[in-house]
Amino acid sequence: MQSHWRRAAAEPGLGPGLLIGVRVVIAGGGTGGHTSAGLAVAEALAAGGAEVHWIGSREGVEARRVPEAGVPFYPISTGKLRRYWDRKNVTDLLLRVPAGLVQSRSLLRRLRQAALFAAGGFVSVPPALAARALGIPVVVHEQTAVPGLANRITARFAARIAVSFPPVSFPKSGGGFAADRVVVTGNPVRREVLGGSREAALAQFGFDAAVPLVYVTGGAQGSHRINRMVGEALPRLLAICQILHQCGDRAETGDHAWLRELSRTLPPASRARYAVTPYVGAELRDVYAAAALLVGRSGAGTVTECCGLGVPAVFVPLPGASGDEQTANARLVEAAGGAVVLPQGELTAESLVDTLTRLLADRAGLQAMGARARALAVPDAAQRLARIIREVATP
Fold first, then answer.
1. pTM for the full model?
2. CATH no. of 6-189+378-392
């Protein structure tokens, strides 16, 4: 690691009472990754005695999950700054974002918190700007290997910038590298995926314990390209493994219906090796425990979970996503020996079969891949982030 990087201290935990009476506001969301990481930090803060509140959007994942977790939630008006022409840019920048800034300033004055944790997503920008105006210290967390636009804005005035992977660079006011404020903390793994049971997953989906299980996922919405290539290769793939396929259920692609119909045409022996579902819920922890290999996108959440759980992966990055962050995420794990990257432009039924055949034929090699992926994980990332927030919190 380069000398200008600091790694957050590894300690057993925050300890009882270290944050008693300290009020922290978390701002962010929009996606499950930002929300999951923020909730993990909220739990760590609360365990140390802090009082946690959350500012987010009305439409994002956080609007449902944060109240379910028992954290007071305050929705604000929010927009998105797109890096391409869209008429919504005008209404967002002239109306929605300023309204969110006014709402955030009012909330922060009322809450009188000691620090603000920006968990990512554009909804974090108005509260962070309001916190800066009020003299409230801000801690920014970047989950991916390529900083998103929202965090590049808020990092300019943040007291600390926490990153999941080095080397991620941020500008400081006036340009240059904000090395003195950057700390490597890792990305929290959501508690819901820990402690799974391989036997439970095999029993739920009727799989054979003697055949390697491949978990295919394109995220909540699914990936049309991955879905179609898996479908085209299905008979050949099922000759070497069994597959749990989380495919999403978007009407515009029809992938779920197509895959279900395709599975009905398989011979009985092959059909028993394939399960397709639009969504994997609480059983995901068991699926991870049972999976010999994952095939999927490489968003921050998936990469963090594969590393944290030691699951080897074939990553098919979403091309160009937020500055091609998914490719950067995947390449970091590949460079450590914990994954194989198969660019979408090279993804065909043939390349998928060839890649999985090679990997699954070497069981010891797969286990070594998983161990190398796990070596990248920071198991106490949530506690490290909570500790940084404690350090900058105003008295």
1. 0.85
2. 3.40.50.2000
